[in-house]
Amino acid sequence: MKGVIMNEKQVLNKIKECRICPRNCLIDRTNGEKGFCRTGTELIIFNDYIHYGEESELIPSQTIYLKGCNLRCKFCPVSNYLNDSSAGKIISVNELVSSILDGLKEGAKNVNFVGGEPTVFLYPLVKVMKLIKGKQKTVWNSNMYFNKNIFSILNDLIDIYLADLKFGNDECAKKLSDADNYSEIVRGNIKLASEQTNVIIRHLVIPGHLECCTIPVLEWIKRNLRDTKVSLMTNYTPNYKSGIKEINRFLNEDEISYINKLKKKFKLNYIV
Asked: What is the pLDDT of residues 208-222, one digit of tens each?
């Protein structure tokens, strides 16, 4: 318990001059200032339900959708919620804990914090996780684009990292998510997470990005985390508002066929 209280104080200090993620906005979120992620200190959610569409070993998973993110992915499936000022509602820590315990009674195997990005809500979520620790498992469904010292706060609170590894290079990351120094930060964080607890690496295959992103991602996993579970996702849905022609389509048959060949070539620990 003492360690968790220390975690709350650590996060409070980080958001008073915000250094949660590599953007280092340096604004005081405790005083109502909002940086790139547009969040303060309150929990804002836009959905909360028991989900059966996640990886098979996770379901049924109570999925909490948090309204705030430190990336600007052109293909984001929930961008309408994140960008709509009227979407979402403020919920207290106790209300969210009550919902999670209700979900446990209804058969949820875990609570899945997603967004947006859960890390930008670290301050209230540390309180939530303290109250559910030992009662319900936690899944940190994250883009992994955060400062590595955050692990000192998350340590012992997370049961599974559901870690996105979106891009195989920094150029695509900047173009499609407005993220600088993506590869070093996200790959480094995934390796650190794997040293702490269970990790599932998610890679969503983006149309036209198999050579530049999917292959380098699989190569990196094979070299560094061969036994780590990998969810290779081919369910990409275009966001036609992106303004980027190359990604405004579904994967075609040739790409799906090529992905199946890649799975055989890179013999990783794939899950569905």
From this structure: 999 999 999 999 999
